[in-house]
Every structure is written in C-alpha cells, then in structure tokens.
Amino acid sequence: MQVFELPQYVAGHASPPHVRTGAEGARLREGQGAQGAGCYEVSHLETGCENVAVTVRLQEPSLEVPLRSSLRRGALSYSSILQKRLKPRLRGCLPPGPCPRSDSSACALASAGDGSVRTPHDPVTYYTALHIAVLRNQPDMVELLVRHGADINRRDRIHESSPLDLASEEPERLPCLQRLLDLGADVNAADKHGKTALLHALASSDGVQIYNTENIRLLLEGGADVKATTKDGDTVFTCIIFLLGETVGGDKEEAQMISRFCFQVTQLLLAHGADPSECPAHESLTHICLKSFKLHFPLLRFLLESGAAYNCSLHGASCWSGFHIIFERLCSHTGCAEDESHMDLLRKAETVLDLMVTNSQKLQLPENFDIHPVGSLAEKIQALHCSLRQLESYPPSLKHLCRVYIRLHLQPWPVDVKVKALPLPDRLKWYLLSEHSGTVEEDI
C-alpha cells in the first residue's frame, strides 16, 4: 500500500475535504514512539479508501476532550479539526504509480475503484482539491490531480471560480497557470458574472503591489479572448481605465508605477487584437486618454502609433471624435502665453493632432466642428483648427500621402524610432517624424 501524507492546512485558506467516522465508530489511541505523545490516531474513516487513518497532533492538551467527544458522536470532520486549530495528516491509498513529492500538497487523494482520483469539495469554502492545489501553488499536485481524473474546469459553488481563475489572480501562481494551460484548461470559460481568467488577472492587478503582467501574457498566448465582456459590461480595458484614474492627484512614484504597468498591459492587449477605440466611450481607452491627453500623453501616443482609431471604431466621428475632444480641452483651458502649463498643453495637442492626421489617408473631422477659443493663445488654437479644415477640404498632396503611407507601414509603435533608423537623408526623416516627437521611454 502506497502512503500519502497531507501537511497542515492554514487558517484562512481552504480546508481539506470532508471526512466523517464510519458506522462502526472510531478508535482513538494515544501515540507513543515515532508519532510522539499527544498524537491520536483515528481509523475506520469513510474516505473512499480501505484502511485509512488520520493522525491528529493536538496543539493544546485541553482539546483532547472535545476531540474524543467528536469521535464518539461519529462527527469528526476536517473542517471541525481546522476550527479546533488541530493539524491533520491523512495517510491513505493512492492508485499504483509514482507520486511526486510535494512539501505542501493541497488535498487528500482518495482512490476510486476505477483508478481515478476523487476530489470532493471542501464543506466550508466548496473548493475542490484542485482549487486548493492552485491556492497552495503546487503545480506538480495540480498535474497529479488532473491526470487522475480531477475536473480541470470545475468551479466552486460560491464564487464559481475555476482553478484557472485562481491561478491567474496572483503572480506567484504563474507555474500553476502554465501547468493548467498545458493540461488543457478552457482559457475562455467564464464564471456566473461572465468573467474569464483574463478578466480575473486584469481585475486583480493594482500596478503597485500586484503585477500580473506575465499571467496576462501567458493567457493571451494561450488564446484568451480580448473581446471578452462581463454581464456588467466590463472589458479588458476596464481595469486599465480604473488604474489610470488612480494616478490623478495620487503619490507621484505610485502614479509612475501604475502608468508603466498600464502601458505594458496595453501593449500586450493590442498585440493580440484588442480594440481600444470601441464604444461606449467610458470603456474606450483611446477616448479616456484623449480626454486627459496631457496626463496620459505617452500612452495616447502609443495607441495612435499602433493604429488605434481616433474616432469611435464602431460608429465613426458621429459617436465621438478625437479632434473634437482635443479642441474642447484646449478651448476650456484658461491661461496666458507665458503660462508654461498652457504652452505644454498646446505642444502636446499639436503632436496628438499630427499623429491623428498621419493615421489615415483621408481626414475625418466631425460635423459641426466649430470652436470658440478665448485667451491669449486663442489665435494659435484657431490657426490649428483652420489648417485641419483646409486639409479636409482639398485632396491630400503627394508629399502628405507618402508621409502617411510610410508611417502606416512602420506601425506598430515605436514609429519614430523606426523612422530614425531608415537609410534616408536627415531632412526627409525629419519630415516623417511626428511633430515635437520625443521618445516614449523618456516620458514614461
């Protein structure tokens, strides 16, 4: 008979599978020798195995009486052991075959007659053995359970979380996430809220303490759907939009960390086909960055240089337009010509407008695109507006078309870096660069 030991469970985590004494009653014997004093062996337990024993080491002598009482009533369970702060160890039969050693396994394995492994859910949290293996970050145990018949996509009965959902939520569980994907877990299965493992990984990230970047990368490479949407309408960009909002008025160092995390995750999502310009506007990352283009300038430039639409990608400029948003922001900002913040806003607005112009062969301005700027910079803002109107009214020049086609061909980001590497004269490269362009790395 092969022997398998279950190490202790930690309070606050999932407790072991339910085990009760059989109809014959239980025998309690104080251990001496190898087990040591204060250990009690309980046999005749109904676990699906023959001749299974549980060894309980008491933390406090006072717990001996309630333990004996529970045994006499035939009501001893692992959950009650956990509540009494006891440390259980299960010794039971395993199916023939090698058993990988693990310093902290996640569950007790019970051998069924057909050679498969029973993984009953825990009576307190309703986690299965496979869930617990993931929570304890034991990829070898995860594989052992799955190969012996555990349902790899089984969901718990409270949150409906799958093992893959749990593995995706913590960076430390990356080995379990990789193992589950290798074993065939459904990467696009959703819980009762419509949340997939990818959305779990995004929602559990805060950009400061929890970086799920590698989990997200692994899920995307495993075929995760970037168009997944919950029943509440949350998308893959909902978490990023929320985190960007956290950078406003917060700690500067934390804001930089969050911005860097959002930038990296957005890169991954766009590389796998995510559309940041879909409506509704409050779920559109491009729209959010346009509204605060001065604050989120590096991310916005990345989006535009990666081919993101500057209008609603579903309904066009009639839904929302980047040109309208930029000029609305410029006209609402009061300041003087000597105001450095206003000049910085104007410079970044010019760069964003230039990126939008070079992002399409035919300029698409919204209807009723009229502005009423005020202040000392009103003349410059009006000149920008007039130049766009003129570009829309006349057929584009050959020079402009060449610039657009070359920049489109060099997408995705970083387009300006690729332009500088072209074997062209400096004057021509200067023309191909975006206005006032710098490196995104410096901005981030």
TrEMBL record:
Pathway: Protein modification; protein ubiquitination. ANK repeats lie at residues 125-157, 159-192. This is Ankyrin repeat and SOCS box protein 6 isoform X1. Keywords: ANK repeat. Transmembrane segments: none annotated. InterPro entries: Ankyrin_rpt, Ankyrin_rpt-contain_sf, ASB6_SOCS, SOCS_box, SOCS_box-like_dom_sf. The lineage of its organism: Eukaryota, Metazoa, Chordata, Craniata, Vertebrata. Residues 383-438 form the SOCS box domain. It comes from the Eukaryota. It comes from Leptonychotes weddellii (Weddell seal). One of its GO terms (biological process) is intracellular signal transduction. The keyword Ligase does not apply.
